[in-house]
Amino acid sequence: MRFIRFGERGNERPGIVDDDGAVRDLSGLIEALTPDMLSPELIAHVAAADGLPVVDLAGQRIGAAIARPGTIWCIGLNYVDHANEAGMAIPSEPVVFSKAASALSGPNDAIPFTDDMTKLDWEVELGIVIGRPAFRVSTADALDHVFGYTLVNDVSERAWQLERGGQWIKGKSHPGFCPAGPWLVTRDEVPDPQALALRLEVNGEPMQDGTTADMIFPVAEIVSYLSRFARLEPGDLICTGTPAGVGAGMSPARFLKPGDSVRLTIDGLGEQTQRVEALS
Predict the structure, then answer these.
(1) Do 104 and 176 touch, CB atoms closer than 8 A?
(2) What is the number of alpha carbons within 13 Å of residue 245 lying toward its C-beta?
(3) pTM above 0.85, yes or no
(4) Helix extents (H) in 48-101
(5) How many other CB atoms sit within 10 Å of the CB of residue 59?
(6) Disulfide-capable partner of 127 in 29, 61, 152, 277 (CB 3.0 to 4.6 Å)?
(7) 70 alpha-carbon distance from chain centroid
(8) What is the pLDDT of residues 197-217, one digit of tens each?
(9) Cβ atoms of 108 and 272 closer than 8 Å
(10) Given strand 205-211, what is the order of strands in its sheet?
(11) Among the four given CATH numbers 3.90.850.10, 3.30.420.40, 3.30.830.10, 3.10.129.10, the one describing domain 64-278
């Protein structure tokens, strides 16, 4: 099942994308697609519904695939080629950091650019959405706690991330730095999360072309690992790392500027397109 949220920011309505690609309104069944709703019961409830009205999305904004999560977890350097391009050691354990929940945005919302941003970068990533609380779960059981998956752009201001001291969260958390969607695809529709192609282009030029098969730490291991240190809650979003091809890894480095367009896709999870816009 592919869930979607549409409408103006803060007033998004829930929907699903049916097998024919039509969007159907769920607001007659549920008020919102909030973290507490992410359960097998929700899937069964929607599957049993008849006559859901079709929605014309023309001219409508698509919201983030989930309502605001409690935590946005991130895994850094999770592809060997990306660690190599960053000039960093291959990690022996997952590198964990976070993004502020307020960074979440719609998949096609503008990426903001302020006059103190100098190294604005892109990262196409597979996002995991937790559906059941997970604490100290085994790798074998970890996927049972996943509700589904979504496409994420882990937008990063590299100067803030790497040159201003402290933790990476500083360069990851500006509003608009976590486009997620367009869909939240339930786990049953992604039989192997380690067999998904990821692609990103800037102004039509291919930049990233990878596969989740190349993750150092796969999805199940990431969920299990995080659950050793914290209780993962329904609606938590986990960004699983990016393959090579980010702007900071190029020679010379290349970064986003106002007017640039970013397009990214993951097999079965849809497509995003963002334009970089200067904030007045």
Answers:
(1) no
(2) 19
(3) yes
(4) 80-86
(5) 5
(6) 152
(7) 14
(8) 999 999 999 999 999 999 999
(9) yes
(10) 111-113, 270-278, 261-266, 197-202, 205-211
(11) 3.90.850.10
